[in-house]
Write the structure tokens for this entry.
Amino acid sequence: MDLALIVFELFVMVIAISLHDCAQAWMANRLGDPTARMLGRITMNPAMHFDPWGMGISPLLSIFIFHNPLPFGWGKPVPTTYRNFRSKNGEVISVIAGPAAQMLTAIVSLIILLVVKHTVQGGGQSLGLAILLSRRVMLPGVGDQMGGIFPVLLLLYMLLVMNLLLFVFNLLPLPFLDGGKILVRFLPYNAAKAFEQYSMYFVLAFFFIGGPLISIGFGPLMAIFNALLISL
């Protein structure tokens, strides 16, 4: 069951990453820069966003080597041409569109889960089982209690979890992530150059302290969403 759940998590992660990159490409195009659109990046097709390290090696390392409970990764950078943007803040807004789309997806997933919980017979019980399974908790006989709606609830809940995880991950102030791209726009010139110069050291450090850093933001955020699912 654990292996099947990991494969399912990786599948949902790829969807979330594709959504993130597609949103950034779409927003850049709306703000005047067609670079990503011309390269076919306004799409949910994962092949157009695939990065061997971000979608392949990093998620597997995070699970099997660093024993993180969830995989995290990224797609290949969404290309932009600064001079094409109609506004001086256009590039920053297009970068923010990625995490914003992931937060919106998590909120929509939460709303649908709540609707199903209160309108479908056995929805509440199936939702509880989906939450347990997402935490790799498999109680004896639990398979007999899974209703027909269970796969949909598990997908929606994992979309919620994965998009919140990647929302926090992408906003970390690291050179190759959205948080770093936003940060470097507001740093003094010398500080920005140093930030980019030592980017490889930041990447290496991330694989040792990235998990705890993500947990600082992801834990409380996930607790809020779970509390809403249980209490509403």
